[in-house]
Amino acid sequence: MYKDVKEYISACQVCARSKSSNQAPQGLLQPLPLPPRPWSHIALDFLTGLPPSKGFTTILTVVDRFSRACHLVSLKPLPSSAETANLLIKHVFRLHGIPSEILSDRGPQFIARVWTEFATHLGAQVSLTSGFRPQTNGQCERLNQELEAMLRCVCSSNPSSWSSELPWMEYAHNSHTFSSTGQSPFEISLGYQPPLFPSDSASPITVPQFLRRVRCTWNQTRLALQRTADHNRRIADQHRRPAPAYAPGDLVWLSSRDIKLRDSSRKFSPRYLGAFPIAAVLSPVSDRLTIPPSMKVHYVFHVSLLKPVVSSPLCPPSDPPPLVRLADRGLGYRVHRILDVRPRGHQFLVDWEGYGPEHRQLGHSHLYRVGPGRVAPVGPSLARLIPHILVLSPCGLILPTNQRLALMEGVNLLSAVGVLALVGLKQTPSRRGLRMSLGWPGKIPGHPDM
Q: Which ranges carry the Integrase catalytic domain (predicted)?
C-alpha cells in the first residue's frame, strides 16, 4: 500500500506542478576550462543603474579569466552590438591582442547577429551562458560585487564623482594579490608588479631572466588555478546531487522560479511548468527544451531547473482536451476564462482549457469572432457594432446587447455552453465604450492541425 501511494504521488501531475523541491539542486559543478595564457579567454558584463557622473551611468567590465585582470570602461547608455565591438577594439584588443574566446550573458548586445559575425571574422569563439544561470560568468559577477562595494566606500558622500575614481579602482584590483593564484594580475600578465612610487622600483634584469620568470609565473598560475578549481568543485558538490541521465525525447518539468508568469498571484502559481520534451543534451549540466514561443525565454536551461516526469499506470497522465470541430469544419481551442484585459490595446489574456500558464498569451489588437471553443478573426467592419459588452450565443455569433452592461469585480458572463467566462473585468470610461477582443492562441505542441 505504501509503495502504491508513493508511486501514485510521484506520477501525479498536479503534485509535480505545485510542490516545491526541498532536495539539493541537481547538477555537479563543471568548472570552465583553464585558459593557457593571459587575455586568451575574456568575460564581459555591464554594471548598470549608477547615478549620473559626467554623463556616465554604466560600466563595462572586461575580465581576463587567466590572470583575473580587468578593464573598467565608463559608458553613457547601454551600447549596441557594434558599439560594444568598438569598445573591445579600443580598450582590449589593441593592448592584449585578439582573444580566442569571449564569454558573456545573453544580453541583447551579445545575441545580435552583428556581434556573432564580428567574433567569427576575428576567429574568436562566442560563449553564452545558459538561461537564468549567471554562475557561468561568475568572475564578472564577482567583480561587479567588489566594484559596487568600492564605489559605496569611496563615493557614498559624492555619488557624482564615481567616474573620476574608476581608474584608481581598476589599478587597485589589478595590483591586488588573489588567493586563487597567489599573485596579482599585474604580476601574471606583465611579469612584474608596477611600482606605485619611484622608490619601489626593482633592480633591472636581463631579457633571458625576464622570459624565464614569465614562464615560471604562468606555470605556477596554471597549477594554482587548477588547485582552486578542484577545491571549489569538492566544496560545491557537497551541496549538490548528480543530475539524471537525460536523453532527447525525455519529458521534464521546468522550474518557474525565473520565468515571468501571467498570473494573478505568484503565491498560487505552479512551481513547475510543462511537461516539455528535451530536444538535445548539450552538456552534462545543460539541456535544450522544446518550449512554446509564448514563454519568450531561451530554450537552453541548467539541469538544476529541471526534474524528470515520472509515469505510472496507477496515475496515467491526462491528455490535453481535443480540438473542437465547428459547423464550418474549422478547429479551435476551448477558452477557460479571461485573466486580464487591456482596453487601450484591445487585448485579452486568455487561459486555455487544459493548458498551463506557459501557454497563456495576450491577443493581438484585432476583433475576433468567438464561438463555443473557438477564436477566429472577423473583419474590421464589426468595430462600429461593439460599443457595448458582447455576449456569446450558443451558435457562436456576436450579438451586441441593447443596453450597456457594467462589469464589476467577480461578475461572470458565461455563454450558454460554458465556453467563455469574463472574470474580474472593469469598465473603462471611453466615448466609444468598452471594446473587447480575443487573440489567436498560437500553435500549441500536440495539435498539428493548428
A: 34-193
